[in-house]
Amino acid sequence: MSTGQFGQSGTSNTPKDDVPITAVLNQGEPSPHNDTLDMQGPPSVLGSMIAGPTLASAKTISFWGGLALLICNTTGPGAISLPVVAQTAGWVPTLIGFLVVGSMSYLSSLFVAEAMTMMPGNEQFQSNIEFSNLVLCFFGRRYQVLVQVVCFLAMQTTNIASIAITSQLFDNLLIRLFHKTCGIQIYPHAGPICITEQLPSASPFSGVMLITAGVVVSMALILPQALVDLSENIWLQMVSATLILLIIVEWIVSFFIKGLTPELVPAFGPDMSQVFGSILFNFAYITAIPSWANAKRPSVSVPKTVGVVSSMMTTLFTAVAILGGMTYKIPENSTMIQVINTSPDSTTLSQIAGYTFPIVALITSIPINIIVIRYHARTLSFPIISADGADAESLASMELAAGGFAVDESATTSYTAGQKMKSKDINEKLHDIENDRSANSSTTSSSLVLSKSSIGAEGNYQGSGQEMTIEKVQYPTQTDTEANSALTVASAEMIEAIGEERLG
């Protein structure tokens, strides 16, 4: 696996403001027409169609910022239940589970990053590419929707578990500070209820609750963070990651101070069913890899950052699981933090760390998942051009459709969508066209005019049988008519394939 390309920068094109329904997209020299939009720079390819370029100014996340972001996403809702896993499964399955899941997460993250660089037009992370974009590129629209749903459910599952844990901990904190927490109960008796004492279980409420004061506090902390962009959230992630590491170190030290009881964690326990599920909750950072790669500085290395996070957090979590299990006897319906907070011999520092953990770990990781979900949702819409203008993604899309490869200026070619083409076939076609274009050494610029008949009322493809019309093609200096004719057919095939993939 090549890693050198993971830390390089790229350039992006910035469109002008006014765009007519019939747009000319150029590569190389500016268009001589007054009613056109010029785009300078190297040819765009499939990646530009799927996601618009990222401005260099948006790539601001440093190595330490990326490290903090991934540490916070590694510290999931399963962290506080790891000692229970070690006690029920044994230290051998727990150790194996961490090594396997940690290694798989590391390799999977690198595979995702390398797949992003294999997207045409994103060789140096110069575009905005998310998971669904990758699936659209390599597998097509149908699988893109499936992956979009799976990613949404996976991140929402983590969010729900994190919100539940933080809400319970905030309810216990309110009892600790104000000797009361309240909520609305729906079972066994409907109505408001207040609790003044903590229970051995994670939640102070014994019934089924609709909402509690802890939920309100959690939402008040989560929502403001979820409304900003990823790069704007990094400073908070750095503060959170620092506190997370300090809390974990404090836990490990307190374990040794209190004393270890190895009999609490056998080599092999009676129940191993929760090993991989609980551990996977703590290595969910792969969902943030594309968004982080889109916003990181060009000098930041993906393998180095992911490797440091994976090795460090695997070591720390293994220590917390095994040593914590050897220190406290934890009921199955409780957590390590709840046991620490209710233990009479717990130090004040340990209790502060226990109440602080959900704030610095879970409360800051939930907004990241929400931000990533928001970024994914943006990829479900792929406009080509609108009647009153086009945005950067639209223009990049049309630039790909145009491809910069065409024939005689007076030519008019019609092409009706036929068989579907896989994205990999489009890539091969692009390479073939580029080779043919290179052979025509006198070519200095090219552009394509898409007629109004090739776009719908709102600028989208209307159906799989839509006739795609190339109204005018400019190839200023022609030397090979046959080669140019071949390029025309190839360009039409690309337009057809793009329309087919967008329609699924």
From TrEMBL:
<feature type="transmembrane region" description="Helical">
    <location>
        <begin position="272"/>
        <end position="293"/>
    </location>
</feature>
<feature type="compositionally biased region" description="Polar residues">
    <location>
        <begin position="1"/>
        <end position="14"/>
    </location>
</feature>
<feature type="transmembrane region" description="Helical">
    <location>
        <begin position="63"/>
        <end position="85"/>
    </location>
</feature>
<feature type="region of interest" description="Disordered">
    <location>
        <begin position="1"/>
        <end position="42"/>
    </location>
</feature>
<feature type="transmembrane region" description="Helical">
    <location>
        <begin position="235"/>
        <end position="257"/>
    </location>
</feature>
<feature type="domain" description="Amino acid transporter transmembrane">
    <location>
        <begin position="59"/>
        <end position="384"/>
    </location>
</feature>
<dbReference type="GO" id="GO:0016020">
    <property type="term" value="C:membrane"/>
</dbReference>
<feature type="transmembrane region" description="Helical">
    <location>
        <begin position="205"/>
        <end position="223"/>
    </location>
</feature>
<keyword id="KW-0812">Transmembrane</keyword>
<feature type="transmembrane region" description="Helical">
    <location>
        <begin position="305"/>
        <end position="326"/>
    </location>
</feature>
<keyword id="KW-0472">Membrane</keyword>
<dbReference type="Pfam" id="PF01490">
    <property type="entry name" value="Aa_trans"/>
</dbReference>
<protein>
    <recommendedName>
        <fullName>Amino acid transporter transmembrane domain-containing protein</fullName>
    </recommendedName>
</protein>
<feature type="transmembrane region" description="Helical">
    <location>
        <begin position="91"/>
        <end position="113"/>
    </location>
</feature>
<keyword id="KW-1133">Transmembrane helix</keyword>
<dbReference type="InterPro" id="IPR013057">
    <property type="entry name" value="AA_transpt_TM"/>
</dbReference>
<feature type="transmembrane region" description="Helical">
    <location>
        <begin position="145"/>
        <end position="170"/>
    </location>
</feature>
<feature type="transmembrane region" description="Helical">
    <location>
        <begin position="352"/>
        <end position="373"/>
    </location>
</feature>
